[in-house]
Amino acid sequence: MFSSLLLSLISLSVVVAATPSAPTVTLTARKGSTLRPRRGLARPVSEPLLDQFNGTDLQWFGNISFGTPPQTFGVVFDTGSFDAEIPGIQCGASCVNQHQFNFTASSTFVNLNKTGEIDFATGGGDFESLQVLEVNDTMTLLGIATPDTTFFLITNQTAGFFNDPYDGIVGMGFQPEGGIFPAMRKAGLPALFSMFLTPHTVGNAELTLGGVDDSKLNGKEPVFSSILPPTDQTNFWSLGTSHIQVNNGSVAQDLFEGLQMVFDSGTSNIVMPTNLTVAMYALISPDIKPFGKLGAFGFPCDKIDTLPAVITFTFPSTTGAPFNLTIPSEELNVGPLLEDPSTCQTLINALDEGVGIIGGSLLKHYYSIWDVDNARMGFVANGF
Fold it and tell me: Model pTM?
């Protein structure tokens, strides 16, 4: 069933303005000649990802199929959630801009007859909701089929999803025995994937299953950090930070000590507990103020690009030497707020749910490796 609280939290994305309808885009899976396989295993496979840009980079999405024969959908590959949601033909007018799964055309479809609602927080201070039906069918990603996969058909959705250029979401959260990972092992691949998330000005974003694309490493070896053990509250791609620096100032350690930092490709900005958010903003500008109901902050648009806002997180590596991951100043400006176009939303949202969330604002500056089998994450700075 649904882990709705954490799903809505970890799938938080920032809505800056209404996204215009996008044309249908065909994505073609491809095999890269520079992919690094492991000895004795099948070759990794990759596909390009498209970037939803709406004043800032919001989501990266690509193709996946459901059913027999396969029906293809564009989805966000979301490392901060575990379930898949795609529109069904029951969704009708509220999903008219998305592809809709025709369950009557699939010979392997099973209706589990469970319904529910999933709420998604938006950084602008509101919620969007999906009405869903729990079902079972075959899921196929880059030629790797996972039979008997439980997912959700969207039967209705609120207006915020109406013009999304993708159809749904597929969770890529840390679940060693769930999702697509058992099927990857059966196909001879390690349960590992890599993401090349890039700014819209760079393009060529990519998802790789079962290996690492050496062409993205810039001649460097990745640095790895072990993910934190699951707790009753979290079972995510989480690392623990030992130091947070904003510009030239350090944040007091007692504000983040023991806090799990969840890496979430489905979130565009970063989200921290309120006291930590306030402390980080204090090192950028005292004039950044709360705006909205769900922890959004804002600053005058005509001044925001003059603010230095370099944010660096320090993490332990598997070799013992700590390493830094940095968000540059240009990520501070998320874009004008709908309620007040003269005020621009700033990067950090405040939300007191016991974890921190690090999203695309950092991930698009690093090639990231998500290693389920070894419970670790790897990073190499992008060379663009």
Answer: 0.88
